[in-house]
Known about the structure:
Elements: H1 5-14, H2 27-41, H3 46-67, H4 69-74, H5 88-91, H6 99-105, E1 121-125, E2 133-137, H7 139-155, E3 164-168, E4 180-183, E5 193-198, H8 203-213, E6 217-220, H9 222-234, E7 244-247, H10 254-263, E8 267-274, E9 278-283, E10 290-292, E11 297-302, E12 314-321, E13 332-340, E14 352-359, E15 364-365, E16 371-372, H11 378-382, E17 389-396, E18 399-405, H12 412-425, E19 431-436, E20 451-453
Parallel strand pairs: 3-5, 3-6, 6-7, 7-8, 17-20, 18-19
Antiparallel strand pairs: 1-2, 4-5, 8-9, 9-10, 10-14, 11-12, 12-13, 13-14, 15-16, 17-18
Helix pairs in contact: 1-2, 8-9
Amino acid sequence: xxxxxxxxxxxxxxxxxxxxxxxxxxxxxxxxxxxxxxxxxxxxxxxxxxxxxxxxxxxxxxxxxxxxxxxxxxxxxxxxxxxxxxxxxxxxxxxxxxxxxxxxxxxxxxxxxxxxxxxxxxxxxxxxxxxxxxxxxxxxxxxxxxxxxxxxxxxxxxxxxxxxxxxxxxxxxxxxxxxxxxxxxxxxxxxxxxxxxxxxxxxxxxxxxxxxxxxxxxxxxxxxxxxxxxxxxxxxxxxxxxxxxxxxxxxxxxxxxxxxxxxxxxxxxxxxxxxxxxxxxxxxxxxxxxxxxxxxxxxxxxxxxxxxxxxxxxxxxxxxxxxxxxxxxxxxxxxxxxxxxxxxxxxxxxxxxxxxxxxxxxxxxxxxxxxxxxxxxxxxxxxxxxxxxxxxxxxxxxxxxxxxxxxxxxxxxxxxxxxxxxxxxxxxxxxxxxxxxxxxxxxxxxxxxxxxxxx
Length: 455
């Protein structure tokens, strides 16, 4: 992308500033400036990247302290240099923000800046906990979301002239549930078709709709994509037009990825994002690692004692939005766990995540009170017994309740196989109960959980 000297000057001027100008009269120019800055920053070395990060963190802290009543006191003693920003060692002293803190202080977290918050939008989210949180998004945050969405498409190697279908929970309703259609889903490619439909519709309807419209690409939640392809195989519906699948909103397990790539010869490209802060990480095709999108967020992976996890260690994710001026989100414990990744061989300086594990409530507990990640996915069972969905709920250290969806009641032999496979997940003996249901719904926020711990 070539830029003339005025835009290049603007990029240089804004490089060390957090809040790139979002010109209400020329939104496209603002997008160009931010896009080019993001493009440049991915190649920074560690020292240059940290210097820029400390400037950005300092800017968001100064803004939050000055324009929100919530952070005014919380950040009153934080040391921030006007030019260099805030040292990471100082930033890490800021208390971690919990979901309950946002719920209790939502209005106090809203910025009172007279201009930056024009056009801000409230976005409700509750993730997998069903506890409502409403985050106010600035226009700049939405602009970043759009730019990083396009980066996702380009990293995935998509052709914008081809057709993309998306299944998601918030899809607008259409007459007869036949979906909505438009052109130009990717910037600069006005001929590519974009079709959307609801993931809340029966799997049969979603699958037949996809077989009818024959998209080249599919964007969907991982578990939803699996269900669609299982239904298509069972009912001999043709989904061979789908070349690639873009997944988000749920944990993409290695089993799901391998199933699509080996069985269907379909590449799967994942994105890690949330409604609270937008895009956090994108899969790299070179290494299969997730690159943290440092232009949008500062993402920490911490041990339980609050110290940074090292490469290969699993820790809880704490994230700071670098773009949301309307409602600063600083050191927010989002509820997910991840493994710290190594440096990627693609040459980008962006830090990496090796694996995204899921939420704390997706961890099992043994009788000693220790937590562990159960090596389980509902698709594993579908290979052994005739079930469409299965969800395990740990109600006590030695009690597991299994919900399953199937066309008919399972035979005694199938139930015995199910019990044996569930028992393999736990090192101690567990009491297993089963229940056949018509459908296992997603939590509000579109996340499907194979395993839930209620202890």
